[in-house]
Amino acid sequence: MAGPEYARDDQPAAPVATDGWLLAVSEPGIGRLALQARERLNLLCDAGSHVGTSLDVTRTAEELAEIAVPRFADHVGVDLSDQVLRGMEPTTLDGGLRRVALSGVGEDPGLHPVGALIAMPPSTPQARSVAIEQPVLEPLSSLIAAPVRARGVTFGVVSFYRSRSRKPFEEDDLALAEELVNRAAVCVDNACRYTHERAIAAELEDVTRSLRHALDYQRRFTADASHELRTPLTGLRIQLEEAQLHPDETDLADLLSHALTDVDRLQAILTDLLSLARSGATPLTDLEPVDLADLVEAEISRRIGDPHPARLDLTPGVVADAVPIQVCRVLNNLVNNAQRHATRLVTVGVRRSGDMAELSVTDDGPGVCVTEREHIFKPFTRLDSARSRDRGGTGLGLAIARDIARAHHGTLHVEDAAPNGARFVLRLPVTPS
């Protein structure tokens, strides 16, 4: 039996009857259309399985560009709002779009590279597609621009290009472009939400870590403060109990002298504790231009009873915005520290270094080991070196000084002095002329 005869797609045909067979013959071109429909269906199926494989906005955009080239277009550019990349819904696209993904074959048509910020004048197909919330066909340049929309929010726009060597886009291609972009838009939306939630989780983790660190710090600080307060109280109590048990053997003048010494230490610790709390909780509101040389000269002249002379090395006219009384507190804390550890001499200097004002206090004592230079600014620090806090300080002076420096947007650190000793340097921003 003879087999059936098939009509070609490009020639007219009519039903043909054969012995035992009935062949239905279609109109010209129907086979080509069926093939195109199958190709488009396959493209959409592949897009459904290959676009959105990760909860990453950039990777989702890249997958859309890759799946569309070269099966639908020769070049594809995906442009999204910067807010989308940060996990937020865009409020406006007036500031332009960021080129997130670009894929293409053949000759480069001179498109914007990945990472470029692209403006969208109202006359462009991309701007028109965003405005009408539908794909736009530009037949002259064989371009389709389709908005990336989900839940009524526009995240960006996708541009499909075909080269001159290929059949240009037609009206029928708009539906396919819209379907491709709509599927990708859902994935972009999911990735954007995930990015936002991950950012919130990271912030909460940072806050939790910070609170935990602050709680640990407060616990250590409370324990150290309790210990520091208990020490003079214990000494005072022992002296009083001893005097109570042996009143006839007690030297009243000596007892009062030692008791007042312990009371003075308690008072100094409590005063520094209060200052430390205030320095961290009170914002600076009374800033004024301060000539550091004049301030140092006046403050040092008020000091009486220092065991070592203070030499001044001052550059006049170095001005910083500061609260004078707080800068004086830093100066006195640094000078007190230097006086406790100096061998013969303490030097106080003021100079300008670039856009920073420097106030320094230098002693010729044993210096501070490199490994301990940050540790000494913590409250109630005890060092194993010769600069241990057992020389009369409360253990809070340097901590208070650094807090005041930070509140003034400055720094306080310690370095080596020549030929020996320690040099504490307060740096504050210079007041603009």
What does this entry look like structurally?
The chain is an alpha+beta fold and 433 residues long. It has three domains: 149 residues, 2-Layer Sandwich (Beta-Lactamase); 69 residues, Orthogonal Bundle (Helix Hairpins); 147 residues, Histidine kinase-like ATPase, C-terminal domain (Heat Shock Protein 90). Helices cover 44% and strands 20% of the residues. The longest helix is centred in the middle third of the chain and has 74 residues.
Low-confidence stretches are: 1-13, 384-391
Q: How is the biggest beta sheet arranged?
A: 6 strands, antiparallel
Any idea what the radius of gyration is? 40 Å
Count of β-strands: 15
CATH class of the largest domain: Alpha Beta
Which sequence of SSEs, written as H and E, runs from N to C?
Answer: EEHHEHEEHEEEHHEHEEHEEHEE
- CATH level-four homologous superfamily name of the largest domain: GAF domain
Largest sheet, order of strands side by side?
A: 5-4-3-8-7-6
Give the number of helices. 9
